[in-house]
Known about the structure:
Elements: E1 9-10, E2 13-14, H1 25-28, E3 48-50, H2 52-55, E4 61-64, E5 74-77, E6 93-101, E7 106-115, E8 125-131, E9 134-140, E10 149-156, E11 160-170, E12 175-184, H3 192-214
Antiparallel strand pairs: 1-2, 3-6, 4-5, 5-12, 6-11, 7-10, 7-12, 8-9, 8-11
Amino acid sequence: xxxxxxxxxxxxxxxxxxxxxxxxxxxxxxxxxxxxxxxxxxxxxxxxxxxxxxxxxxxxxxxxxxxxxxxxxxxxxxxxxxxxxxxxxxxxxxxxxxxxxxxxxxxxxxxxxxxxxxxxxxxxxxxxxxxxxxxxxxxxxxxxxxxxxxxxxxxxxxxxxxxxxxxxxxxxxxxxxxxxxxxxxxxxxxxxxxxxxxxxxxxxxxxxxxxxxxx
Length: 215
């Protein structure tokens, strides 16, 4: 595992700000539906891990303080490949959480991801994200990110259980994952009353400026 200097980024672009200390930002996000979103339990509580070979390499993935974007913990995924340098989906460690959502409602999915090491000859890596089986992200042989990158997607829920899954392997370094959020889009829209108050305030400001100009 590598110890990263975390850098925030928006929509898969990098920025140079340091990691947050204290509570995970995802735990403080209003309406977030992901349980143990920042791994602040210190383990994979509320997530289901799968992958026959990957699970046998338990010292090469886990939760620790070095891989946190915010809060005290983050998850890491290392070399779970049975044959380094050759990608096979069968070697992925898969981390899944089933979340109950409203059918037809849209949600914003976001998370912070880092890849620690340049790809050298004979090595490779993979990271993938699916929502209800639909691929959102699939990266093979990804370059080092020099910090965390934020990924953001809009997804649509189905009635009942919805499967959010992350799959990873990394021959020569580690993936770091933290602060996973799934928030209803409707909860991000200002209440009509708030919009009305803002509009009245702007109108009052405009009238006051007009009076000053006439004076």
